[in-house]
Amino acid sequence: MDIIVVGLSHKTAPVAVRETVAFAPENMQQPLEQICELPDVAEAVIVSTCNRVELYAATNATDAALAQLKQFLADYHNLDFAQLEKHLYTKHGEEAIRHVFEVASSLDSMVIGEPQILGQIKTAYGYAAEFKSVGLILNRFLHKAFSVAKRVRTETNIAGNAVSVSFAAVELARKIFGSVEGKTVMLVGAGEMCELAAKHFINNGVNRVLVTNRTFARAEKLANEFSGHPVLFENFKDQLHQADIVLSSTGASNFIVGVEQVTSALRLRKNRPMFFIDIAVPRDIDPRVNDINNVYLYDVDDLQGVVNANLKERHKEAASAHLIIEYEIGQFQSWMAGLDVVPTIVSLRRKVDELRQQELDKTFSQLKHLNEDDRKAIIAMSSALMNKILHPPTKVLKLAQKDDGAQQYVDALQRLFELEIDAPEGKLKDVESV
Amino acid sequence: MVVNIMLFKLTLLLYGITTLLYMVSVVVNKPNGDNWARRVLVVAFAGHTLTLIMRFYEAGYTPVTNLHESLSFFAWTLAGTFLVIDRRLRMAVLAATTSTIVLILMLFGSLMPMGIQSLNPALDSLWLPIHIGLAFLGNAVFTVAFVAGVFYLLQERMLKSKNFSALYHRLPSLDTLDNINYRCLTLGFPLMTMGIVSGAVWAESAWGTYWSWDPKETWALITWFLYAALLHGRLTTGWRGRRAAILAIVGFVFLLFTFLGVNLLLPGLHSYSSMTG
After folding, report:
1. Distance from B24 to chain A by nearest Cα, in Å?
2. Same structural domain for residues A172 and A223?
3. Residue A6 forms beta bridges with which residues?
4. Is residue A348, in this structure, part of any structural domain at all?
5. pLDDT of chain B along its 277 residues, tens only?
6. Shortest Cα distance, chain A CAs vs residue B43, angstroms
7. Which residue of A179, A296, A309 is in closest CB contact with B159?
8. ipTM surpassing 0.90
9. Three-class SS state of A175
10. Which of A5, A354, B106, B164 could form a disulfide with A96 if both were Cys (CB 3.0 to 4.6 A apart)?
């Protein structure tokens, strides 16, 4: 049994191609059933996100199954095979296992460490389970992938620090205030990024929002949205001292907040720290504000700098994630190899037993003078001999199964004794469905 | 060898292990990575307590009368104070730094003559443990404020310059550090005040005068005024953050000088605990 992957991702295909091969979540039954009808595919899962479309499958005929999956992708979406194939990657064996573990652990994501991908794969697995396209192998494989992803997430700092500007702002605020719970945020002006940041602050416990805007109606509307209070733009500077966090993004061409206003606000606040986030370009807040004690000012570039540093940190963390993944690949492979151990032992015993039976028959037909007791003794002797001979290899195989080296013995035995293994074959899911 | 000195050396070793474990946990930076360090610190503190009890038993007086004893006693109050504070904070960076200070005090103490001398009759008083205990407890609390102050300044610099080192992710928030400053100040100042007052009362009964302007007294008073100014500023005009951190650091320098500098450099009435003992 082999695990294979066919797919494309943001690394190999532009969005224009990715969108043509995407699978709609409301219609997963049909493609899953079609894949399972492919002659050499035993089990399958379809992962379809905006950044990747991948087919995971279990097969007994790797090359044939890979070809069939590629053809299926093109046929199902009515695409030109040659055009599509340029963007496809195919993986099998260890490489395929590693790939899926990496994808689930978000090491292959556009933003490394982003948390969505694991949920997306879980959903994909959910469909596959619902429509019974997974069996023994992929069930085990995907659960393993989930646990690997969880290990990576908890044991490395891969998802540690904010990699979006608005999250970075929340994190900085936490570094300054300890917690943003109970703090007051003031929004000066409006803008998508500003509102997004405000939402993040509210989600993290900010309970008071002040909104000001040159157009008061707009301020009122936004204030409603955040269940905050609108403030007249003309006197927002008098309210400045109430804000712990100020998010600014007006279209003003000059600084609208200067050193003087901040200094007097700070006096009113008894020097409690203030955090200014200036998202406007051109900037709204005089950069010299950052030099005042207990005041921290970040503009867009500063925040982007934080994000870049955090991204770099995540890439460093990826190294320790890879160590975890390599270990888990070994674990999974030994489980896969173990799948062949028992059938091999059974087949070996059967083969030897057949030989024993044949030879006994031959012997007994020549030695007709033997009485019943003699015959019994000879039969007992032959079967003791067989057991004695088979005992060591059986033991070695079972031991090897535990520590990851079973495959070579399985191969050797199958060749030396010309064994035929009859399981696992065909559609495993029929034998052991979810 | 005398039991208390053997125990002292064992304690020193345990503090060494504690410091090492804390440093490893800072580098590794995992939640609860400092569990073992803390366990060893608790053992080391228990060992240290036993050391002091044995020394008390073997010497027959509270062992705070020469430099070896004072350093060991200071280290003990610092370790104890930190254990109390750390129960709620659990910050490996702070712990690693504080245990390093404890270790340095102990190493310094191990270099001093460690033998037990007969007690100067002037010190044979119940005031000895009270006066010294209060003073050193105050010192210990202010030492924690100093450590928090240093990290406050480091982190404030990083946040202002937007240039973050590996330390950044290991530090608690500015608010937490400033809070430690405040808590330590409100705890340390009364202790220090009571230490000075108890000394004055004792001086009156021993030397016949409350205050005689010997170097220790003078420097203690200067240090007291410094912390008084900081406390006043904090409570009334909202001195906090950077300014409070700087003052906690300056205060600590004065405090160290009052403790060690005066002993080693300026002879006076308090010169029981110079190098020679």
Report:
1. 16
2. yes
3. A55, A90
4. yes
5. 588 888 999 999 999 999 999 999 998 887 788 889 999 999 999 999 999 998 888 888 888 888 888 899 999 999 999 999 888 888 889 999 999 999 999 999 999 888 887 777 778 788 888 999 999 999 999 999 999 999 999 999 999 999 888 888 889 999 999 999 999 999 999 999 999 999 999 988 888 888 888 888 899 999 999 999 999 999 888 888 899 999 999 999 999 998 888 877 777 767 665 444 3
6. 29
7. A296
8. no
9. helix
10. A5
